[in-house]
Structure formats: structure tokens, C-alpha cells
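so my prof wants the structure for this chain in the C-alpha cells format not the other one, which i didnt know existed until like an hour ago. anyway here's the sequence
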Amino acid sequence: MVHNRDKRIINVIYNYNSPSKKTYSILTEKLKKKGFIIPEKYDEKAELNICIGGDGAFLRAIHRFNFPNIPFIGINTGHLGFFQEILPENIDDFIEKYINEDYMIEEIFLVKASVTTKEKSFQLYGVNEIVIKGIRSKVVHLEVFIDGNHLESFCGDGIIISTPAGSTAYNFSSGGSIIYPSLKTLQITPLSPISSRAYRSLPNSTVVPGEIPITIKPEYRYENSILIVVDGFEIKYDNLTEITFTVPSKTISRLNFDKNMYWNNLKSKFL
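here's what i got, hopefully its the right format
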């Protein structure tokens, strides 16, 4: 990573609970002593985004600042902390490694949804997943196509389209598979599928190469009862006709200070 040695700016993003505020104060003091500038407001010229909190804070920061090109690193003051690599007690070690450029930069693949209604088209981006559900927990009826080929007529609570990074989140809790982050794929995971003579759907998740589009069309009478949930944020569109999912060229960058962090995380969080 190339830095401007005269003006090294780092954005520190944190939530307002007590552990995060305390960590923010300690971190910013240490960074300033090393010559870094910590702006009061988000600076698009910064070389790094440090996010203090849990995974929810990490995801909110990415959405809030519109999927920036500036790399992220997380300090975990939350519960799960799958995205948040640094523990508060290891801040000194983190700063030292960052100054010495003792880290790798890894790309996080996203999921893009092109949403079409009878009037307009919209684009949504997710880090973990985009979920198609019924409003007020209604059963939904969806037609699923892969690369233009009809796969199934789905009936159930909904469908998760997850990224590799999100495969350990809602997807995993719903019976989906864990996918290594460097694999450019999307995963289709059914939520409580109902099988009957009219509706037949796969009971397990399906992994699709990232360059192949996945299209979901609600049955006509259900077009106004569909809820789209992007990384936990709910959105409702009227007169929805179809949603096409792809892996976009846009990615998020994250610093990785330990090549074994992914496997250690899996073991410590889930086993």
C-alpha cells in the first residue's frame, strides 16, 4: 500500500457503547503519538478505516460510507467478531505491524442485486447476504432461474443469496455451507422450503459460480408482499417483477495480519 508520508490519515469508526468508546480513546491517542491524523469526520483521503465494535458495526460502516476503496480493519468489542480481527488488548501489536506493513490485503467479494419493478430499476450491494422474504412472515412463492434456466418453483419462508464472507452468518445458521472467502461464488440457501405437488425446491443450499446470474421472480400475486433484506437492513419495493444477483467487480478490502486467522476464527467461534 502506498502512503502519503507527510499526511497519514486514518478514519476510526466506532459505536457508542462503553467498551467501544474506551477503545476509541486509547487507540486514537496511540495513533496520534505515532504521527497519524485522526479526523473528526470521515475523510475519503484516509489510508485506512478502523472499525471498533462487532460485526454489525463493521457492516453498518461499509454501507454508511458507500463501500469505499479504503481498506478496513476491525477491533472487536462485540460478541461474534468474525470480521473484527484485532482484540483491544493487542492494539500496540497491531499498530506496530501496520507501521511495518506486516500484513496482507484481502478482497471481500460482494453480492449485487439488480431489482426491477414495473416502474424502475435499482441496484443493491451486500457484504454478507441479500434475503428475499415475505412481509409479516408470509410464505412466499418464487421462481428461481440460474443463467436463464429455470431451476425451481420455491415455496417457503424465503431464500438467502450469500457471499463467501457471509456464508458463516445467516446462511450458516440456516443450514448453508461455509465457503472460503477467496472463492468467487454465490450461495442459494432455502428458508423452510415447502414441498408439494405444486412446488418443488431443493432442500439444501446450492453454490453457483460468481459469473453466472441468479434470477428470482415472485409469482404475480405476490409482487407486493416481498421484502428484501440486505445485511439486516429491510427494504420493500412495490410491483416487484424480478431480482437478478451477480458478483460485482466492486469489492471491499480488509487487512489480514495472520494467514491462519480464518481457520482460527472458524474453530473459536463455531466449535
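also thought this was worth mentioning. The first strand starts at residue 10 and ends at 14.
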